[in-house]
Amino acid sequence: MIFVGPHVSIAGSVSLAPDRARAVGATGFAIFTKNQRVWKAPALKEEDAAAFRERLAADGFVPAAVLPHAGYLINPATPDEALWEKSLGLFIDEARRTAMLGLQMINIHPGAYKEGAREDGIARAATMVDRVLEEVPSISVAIENTAGAGTILGSSFEELDALLSASKHQERVGFTLDTAHLCGAGYDVAADPFGILDSFVSRFGRGKLLGMHLNDSMVPLGSRKDRHAPLGRGCIGREAFRSIVCHPAADSIPLILETPDESAWPEEAAYLLSAR
């Protein structure tokens, strides 16, 4: 079974998200649990969470098919103590929302260390992940790989390994691999998508791949930039994505389209699902 679908809007109510995913033929999807660009938002009401859980089941989705994405303001690696504490509070809030929705994991960017030693940034990021896991014991955290611009952490498997190794709760930490980010970081997804996943599984084990973001890339291999493109309209190409969904590691994890052309989502989802 593969869980394929887009990152859908929660505008109006988070309970509307499952219907929006179903409308494009998805078998899985992603959401933000709140507005991703603000620090504070109204508390998630239990009636809205219950309605989400009800619609999720009614639309034929299982919780494992949904990958909530933490907000963009959170920076787990920052050396700014006030910002780190503020980020921690927001991350905990979004993890609690995830649990209220009956979901199992939340995706997070590892952040930028800004200054000083990279190792210190890794330690700060791992500490924040641990704090969230201790506050919300029902969820796991999926750390997303990055393209590696500036001081942003997580652009290599070695650095993802360092983030995992620094955690005290490694059994509840895994990863989301974004194909556009892999390309930006220098992993040749176009030439060897199956081999890249084999390398990941060899290093971490299949169970550490908690989800994927399937995005073509507007910018070339090794650019260190993050610019998503619709499938087949970037430097990765459509065939690589068919190869990815056929890899055993893609079974039963959310495979999320963050591609920028919403009108293409039904066709993109159908294309990926047809590979299996």
* CATH T-level fold name: TIM Barrel
Subunit organisation of the chains: single chain
Structural class: alpha/beta
Question: What percentage of residues falls in helices of 4 or more residues?
Answer: 25-40%
| Poorly predicted sequence stretches spanning 5 or more consecutive residues | none
Share in β-strands: 5-15%
> Per CATH, which architecture?
Alpha-Beta Barrel
At the first level of CATH, the class is Alpha Beta
The gross shape turns out to be globular
Rg estimate, integer Å: 17 Å
DSSP strand tally: 10
SSE order in H/E notation?
EHEHEHEHEHEHHEEEHEH
Describe, in plain words, how this protein is organized in 3D.
The chain is of the alpha/beta class. The chain has a single domain, classed as Divalent-metal-dependent TIM barrel enzymes (TIM Barrel, Alpha-Beta Barrel). It contains 9 helices and 10 strands. A 6-stranded parallel beta sheet has the order 1-10-7-6-5-4. Strand 5, helix 5 and strand 6 form a beta-alpha-beta unit. Helix 3 runs parallel beside helix 4 and helix 4 crosses helix 5. The termini are close together. The model has no long low-confidence stretch (mean pLDDT 98).
